[in-house]
Amino acid sequence: MTDAFSSNSEAVLQRTVNVSTSSHAGNLMQLYQIAETCDFVTSNQFTKVALQFPDELLPDAVRVSAEIEHETKAKTYILGDTSYGSCCVDDVAAEHVRADCIVHYGPSCLSPCRRLPLLHVFGKRPIDVQQCVAAFKELYPDRQSHVIILYDVTYSHAIGDLRTLLCDIYPNAAVSLLKTDYSCGAELIQNSDHLNSQDDRLIFKFGRQFGVKKGQSVDDYSMFYIGQEGLTLTNFMMTWNHCAFSSFNPETCTGRVESVKINKALMKRYYAIERAKDASVVGILVGTLGVANYLTIIEQLKDIIHKAGKKSYMFAMGKINVPKLANFLEVDVYVLVACPENSLLDSSEFYRPVVTPFEMELACNKQREWTGEYITDFRDLLPGGSSHVVFPEPNESVIEEENTDVSLITGALRACSTTSSEIINGTESSSLVPRNQTFTVANTNTAASFLAGRSWQGLEPELGQTPVLKAVEGRRGIAIAYEEEGLGNKDALTSPQKS
After folding, report:
1. Which residues pair with 77 in a beta bridge?
2. How many CB atoms lie within 10 A of CB 208?
């Protein structure tokens, strides 16, 4: 009867898993571009190579590793369980084994990596190009339509054939090209002359580059995406939210007009911005250790949060989930520093909202206004970025009432920034300071005041009050049945008799 309610422990230890190794036996070399990978390793004389695989490709990792070692004589290390999203390059794990380079397999967000030489192997997911062209013609019957073609990186191998079939029929269609340092199976910008027309204005975003006609902007185009519904498509639709989107799913060979209510999604994000404005304590979540300039945006967030009169604490906890963030009740809102595809975290199940660096800047910087434009790449917010806005300098002549705002959620007054003297002097006091000369006196040490109001504040040390006792032997066994439990208890279960 016990097996009906729980598994047998011995069966779990003796269980085996049969992994099929013949699914890609014939095209393993082509699927993972092993010849190109070996050429990358040998030409640069790398001796230690880190191979990063997503979970769905791990069954082939051992065979790919063995082939590369056999051809190059280099030592390979398989990176399976990445610290953050599998689309990002885990160069921290590669540095643990002192690898000379990283080979990243599968889908990628194309975020730049600056620590180690990087090779992208996107793979070649099957796609029927003729079906894709037929879906495109059905969605865009007007041959003069202005359309930008985007795609998942795993279908980049078929984009050349797609362009050949469409370029003569649709003269105003722009096909994006990938821009990476080095990759296999993809048509790169530096290897193509399709974007050298003087009449086109080049747009570079999310590792992709395309041209728009002179005198036009991206908002004048429609977007056609090749790939499954997921984080990549969501990121594109949120960024270019003024464009009409349609997509083609290569797995089902069907095209459709994307009917996701972007305005509704933007209003949800705007609600999160209002929550960030009401927050007193902000937690900065480090969601990446590999994307370039992530330390710079963290320092910038600390600075603007402080200037806005809020407290900030930094957390590095790997993959984020609800129980992890529920441990910190003092935090009112979290801001996630991650790659563009992983920044748009659905925080509906979390106890506290999780916002992006762009949303945090909207909440803290009065110079940045909500215009409907949405930025998922935090590098655009840095000095020199396309969307950088300077935080206004404190001015002692500005009256305090101009630095207050009304919350759209609670209806209460809230301070928009710290007092100018506090910022100019660079000091941070934990004593009582006047926040508003008329209404409020607040303690700036928010976390300490929150802890003081808790009914349980942790274990009390009581130094010098607890007598010193000799160490005694504790319980033995497991919590479900300690060895001493049941002794002298008539109702205790007896051990089974030997037959």
Report:
1. 50
2. 20
